[in-house]
Structures are given as C-alpha cells and as structure tokens.
Write a structure and sequence with these properties.
With about 180 residues, the protein is α/β, with parallel strands linked by helices. Helices cover about 30% and strands about 30% of the residues.
Amino acid sequence: MMIRKIHHVAYRCRDALETARWYEQHLGMKLVLSIAEDEVPSTKEADPYMHIFLDAGNGNILAFFELPTQPAMGRDPNTPAWTQHLALEVDSMEELLSTKNRLEAAGIDVVGPTDHALFTSIYFFDPNGHRLELAVNTPRAGMLEALDAVKWDMLEEWSRTKKAPKHAAWLHDGRYKEMFH
C-alpha cells in the first residue's frame, strides 16, 4: 500500500460556528462542508455531533468535531502544551510576518518568529486551545543533504542515550549561517 496524501485531520472544538469563523477570519480557510449526525456512523453510538471541514490549501482539509453531550475538552496533562501542534506552511517570510502582525492586532498572543534553520515559524493558539504553527521554509544550500546524511545516526544515538545527539550541533549553535550561505 502507498498512501496518496492525508485526506483530512480532525480535532475537537468547543463551538463549530466559532471555529469556522475564526479559521476563515485569521487564516483564510474557507468552510467547505458541514455534517451533523445524531449517531456515529462507524460505531452506531448515539452521540450527536457537528463535523466541519475547512480548506487548508492544496487539497488539504482540516476538520473539527463539536460534541455537545461529551465532557468538556481537555488535554493530556503529561504532555507540554508546545508539543502537540498543527504546522501550516506559508509562502514567504513577508506573509509570515504580516500574519503575525494581523494576529497580534486581533489580540492573539504570538510567539516568534523562531529560526529553526530549515524554516522559520510563529506559534499561537486557536480558540479551542490547539497550538498552531505557521512556517516558511528557509533552507540554505547543502543543509538538507547534510541533515539527511546524519538522520539515522542521530535517531539511533537518541534511542540509546535519550540525549540530544551532536551530529548536527551546528544547526542549533548558529554555525549553519556560516556553513550554508
């Protein structure tokens, strides 16, 4: 089997209407489909829901479920808030920075921009508490090939030691700016 693409990614939301409007207003994602049922099709459980689908660009769909009869949304208390997130790609640094300015003008707290060497990102939360990342690719010539050459060694060292491998220390200490120009 070969996966063609991600059909959609689904998260829970507190309010489907608020969520659809927020994503359209702040990220330009249009609502493409709304489905409401009183019974879960796969399990046949009685559990009313609203399922919305948003156009995330290039055939990617971001979906949400509003579940009014379920307990309030929560999150895994053992996983830091920064860990689980949805990263969305933008075309340019200008677009990233203008979006940051628009989000902040709307009262949304934004972290960044953060330079990850291969890409630069900003981070913020949607009204449901889901962390979002907007990223613009910024690789320098030769950097992807250098990281590709050490990816398995890094993973195997991590698996043994549970400490950050030094194979690509240049990525985090800033030397990549001189190494890959």
